[in-house]
Amino acid sequence: MCNENEQDLILASQSGDLAALDALVRRHQGRVYGFAMRMCRNVEDAKDILQETFLGMVRSIREFRQESKFTTWLYRIASNACLKKHRRGVFDPTPEQELSLDALMPRPDSDGRRPEIADWSEDAERALLNGELTGRMEAAIDKLPREYKIVLLLRDVEGFSAEETAEMLKLSVPAVKSRLHRARVFVRKELADYFQEKQAERA
Amino acid sequence: MRGNTGAEPQGKDVPVNCRELFERLSEFVDGELSQEICEEIRKHMEGCDPCVNFAKTLKSTADLCRRLPSQTMPPEVAGELHMLLSKHLRQSR
Questions:
Q1: Which of A78, A132, A159, A166 has the greatest CB tally within 10 Å of its CB?
Q2: Do A184 and B27 touch (CB under 8 A)?
Q3: CA distance A165 to A171
Q4: Are A157 and B68 in contact (CB < 8 Å)?
């Protein structure tokens, strides 16, 4: 059943085939769990989100009309579950807050000289294999206010398009792009600090 | 990188449109801008190393996000999920 085409699994699930429904859940459960874990950073809350997402899927699979991709539809349920949990205040490491581009933009020094921006993109490639960088990245993403974090996770970690993300979060595409840019600039700054520290250690 | 936001001190040799470019760099690295705007950005970057390096490292940030290792779901979490779903399906028959 697991090797079946997703379309067939969806149609069979909609007709009440429990084995197909089970295969559909198993196919997506790991990815949804990863997304929930990154949103809330705690196994109990991630478990609740996972359960709420797939209960929602099972309850409403017959209503899925294939007007959007199945994963987009499923992640809409998962995103709602995450945001609902945030609103309830069950986990809330990052209160709502605006990320200002002006505050994130590198500034000239007091003499008006252009800021020094190091190019660490090649170091990043090498450091990717290093668990420390992964930890720094996860920590940086964690610091993002939730409405920026969810957009960065959906776009850059999960790989959904701006249009799909907008559909899931009921936002406009420009709003998704604006939040993504601010979130990336924020995480980039954290990584820049990391590479600066590494360079200082080497010096 | 400094723009024309007015409140900032005016420095020497600072391009006036760094701020405007800064706002659109994600769209630029994602290839979402028109050819005309991309050309304008490239022209600006020919004389602006900070913008070049910022764009490179911003792209690198997005690439690193895409390559973060996946999270492993504990088997007991999967087990509980399937028990819950089975119970729900039995009750809804």
A1: A78
A2: no
A3: 8
A4: yes
Domain residue limits, chain B: 1-69
The domain total for chain A is 2
Final residue of a domain: which of A87, A120, A141?
A87
Examine residue A92 and state whether it is found in any structural domain, yes or no.
Answer: no
Please report whether residue A110 resides in a domain. Answer: yes
In degrees and rounded to multiples of 5, residue A110 shows phi and psi of: -65, -20
Could you tell me if A114 and A196 lie in one domain? yes
Question: Is there a single domain that holds both residue A73 and residue A13?
Answer: yes
SS3 A86: helix
**Which of A29, A102, A118 comes nearest B78 by C-beta?**
A29
Average pLDDT over residues A27-48: 95
- The fraction of chain A above a pLDDT of 70, given in percent, is 93
Nearest neighbour of B57 by CB, restricted to A37, A138, A192: A192
Do A40 and A133 lie in a common domain?
A: no
pLDDT for the residue numbered A124: 87
Instruction: Report the pLDDT averaged over residues A47-59.
Output: 97
pLDDT digits (tens, 9 = 90+) for A124-182: 878 877 778 899 999 999 999 999 999 999 999 999 999 999 999 999 999 999 999 99
Domain that holds residue A43: 6-87
Let me know if residue A93 belongs to a domain: no
Would the ipTM clear 0.90, i.e. be above it?
Answer: no
d(CA A89, nearest CA chain B) in Å: 22
Given a cut of 90, whether residue A123 has pLDDT beyond it is no
Q: Which uninterrupted H or E stretch holds B43?
A: helix B35-46
